[in-house]
Amino acid sequence: MVSLTEKIIREHLVEGDSALIRNKEIAIKVDQALTQDATGTMVFLEFEAMGIPHVKTEVCVSYVDHNMLQTDFRNPDDHLYLQSVAAKYGVYFSKPGNGICHQVHLERFAEPGKTLLGSDSHTPTCGGIASLAIGAGGLDVAISMGGGAFYFEMPKIIGVRLTGQLQEWSAAKDVILEMLRRLTVKGGVGKIFEYFGSGVKTLSVPERSTITNMGAELGATTSIFPSDETTYKYLKMQGRENVWKECKGDEKDGDYDELIEIDMSTLQPLIAKPHSPDLVVVANECKGTKVNQVIIGSCTNSSFRDLMTVAMIMKGKKVHPNVSFSVVPGSKQVYEQIARNGALADLICAGARILESACGPCIGMGQAPSSGGVSVRSFNRNFQGRCGTSDANVYLTSPEVCAACALTGEITDPRTLGPAPKIEWPERVEIDDSMIIAPPKDNASVEIIRGPNIKPLPDMKPLDDAITKEVLIKVGDNITTDHIMPAGAKVLPLRSNIPAISEFVFSALDPKFVARAKEKQGGIIVGGDNYGQGSSREHAAIAPLYLGVKAVIVKKFARIHKANLINFGILPLTFIDPKDYDKVEQGDVLEINGILAAVKNDDVVKIKNVTKNYEFATKCELTKRNAEMLLVGGLINLTKMKANN
Ligand code: MIC
Ligand code: SF4
């Protein structure tokens, strides 16, 4: 049998064995690229540095959705830079207010069977429409915009057979929460999840996208659904049925690398407890927990269906007096739809605080919970402190459970509310793309506007052959890029200014980290399993680099972060014997010699712990191309060298 994933990859393969040998490097052509503002300023600075006059992908869209508070000149300056640079290089610009990149891309641009690379870890959202959609670091996206291929190690393909149908009050969110319950946040590393089976047809495209979106929390490379009749109807509703085509794997499921079965009819309303998306239990188990805040939104659950469900539950009722209840529509299209059909009025009457269409509270841009507060959200990430309050407890669940909590003021199983609402999808929606600015045909007169907060990238130096440096910090398992490089209202405005943002590296875990890194003139980071999970932000590599971090030694890396470290010339090492992780401590001086030869020859990298006087072995697992890149100090240097030869 041939899976859908393999079919799409083979059609786009530009390098590597067409047998798609697992774990071997391959490269694919990128049809579409997307960026968002928080990662996008870097992407465009990098793209500009390449000196290519026009983007080469079929479609490239620059969204503004993360950084919207505009508390001073910095955010709006970034927006102007992004709009002008998009016009210069042939990129569509989705204005602030038009919606969250993944929701808008699904509605207006994504196509079945195409490849999509995005500088955001939730790019797999468009897998719901059968696009092979992958999140990557900004530099990888910049390269693809310039016509370069996307390189990655061929993941395993895991078939997920969906059978049955969701019961009343259960939701697509419960399918992905069930996956997280079973597999954990590292269960998808090196894997692509391909959904198939008789249950697929019972799910609308936005519901499928809720599932593929949150596949990012499994650590997966991506997730994908087939393109079928339902996909056709969705595209027709969007006036884009011309791009529909049927896409599916050959229906013999025995040959996936692994197989998972989910009978959707058995799923109960689920909830992920603080502070990890995989701490999943049946919502009823948390029954009675007092709730201070409920928020509906984010790229996971802010579609027409989600907001209508909530509006119908809230209609004629009032939000509990102790709850702050906010709704964040995923796109202007959805916002307009609920405004026109009256559902928005129902939400307002119930007592909802309606926010603009953006990421907002999901990335800590406002609406932080109170001290020790409980916040129930329809989002995808509940890492500690991400919401803006370090001791708040954030739960993740379906819009249905969220609405039930907003009404009762405590965690509530929605099945206690009576019959569930039934949502009718409209045949067609009002299409208004006026907030998507197409690039001009003639860009000669376009001036790129740069505010004073936009600073150039630091220089990347070739790899050192020997490093003797101190361990600046030792962290545990599942450290996220939010831990390494926090976001939120204070830090996000600094995304275009590496010297300024580097002051916040590891700030939530260890406020003294930056001072120590400066005093010691750089050093080494030691981490556990799944290090660097979560966001694709390359700032989690560039800012430590700026502080002089030379090497990161961990038990295992998350995919995007490892690629970002290599892209910026930081040595990524893994312990061969995980017990060596236990022995090394913060403050130990480590001596690493013969680095260049080890990287070139794919050899073991021996490290001497000078402080404790013993030696241990690490691996630097790199493809040939990665090794070449690392030796010269990263992808920008490599690209420049190749261009000059
Ligand atoms: C996130 O959800 O963590 C973000 C913010 O969307 C990030 C991107 C970023 O840090 O700008 C992501 O998921 O990649
Ligand atoms: Fe935005 Fe949150 Fe989605 Fe990231 S996860 S793209 S911050 S809505």
Features:
binds iron/sulfur cluster; seven-stranded mixed sheet; 29% helix; seven-stranded mixed barrel; 3 domains; Aconitase, domain 4; single chain; binds alpha-methylisocitric acid; Aconitase, domain 3; alpha/beta; 645 residues; globular
Total beta-strand segments: 27
CATH architecture of the largest domain: 2-Layer Sandwich
CATH class of the largest domain: Alpha Beta
Task: Estimate what percentage of residues fall within beta strands.
Answer: 15-25%
Number of helices: 22
Structural class: alpha/beta
- Rg over CA atoms: 24 Å
Low-pLDDT ranges: none
Shape: globular
Mean pLDDT: 96
Ligand list: alpha-methylisocitric acid, iron/sulfur cluster
Question: What number of domains?
Answer: 3
Report on the structure:
This protein is α/β, with parallel strands linked by helices and 645 residues long. The chain has three domains: 4-266, 2-Layer Sandwich (Aconitase, domain 3), CATH 3.30.499; 270-417, 2-Layer Sandwich (Aconitase, domain 3), CATH 3.30.499.10; 467-644, Aconitase, domain 4 (Alpha-Beta Barrel). The protein is 29% helix and 19% strand. It has 22 helices and 27 strands. The strands form five sheets. Strands 14-13-19-18-15-16-17 form a seven-stranded mixed β-sheet, with helices on both faces. It has a seven-stranded mixed barrel with strand order 21-22-23-24-27-26-25, surrounded by four helices. A six-stranded mixed β-sheet has the order 7-6-3-4-5-20, covered by helices on one side. α3 (74-89) links the parallel β4 (59-63) and β5 (92-94). α2 crosses α3 (74-89). The radius of gyration is 24 Å and the shape is globular. 57% of the residues are buried. The model has no long low-confidence stretch (mean pLDDT 96).
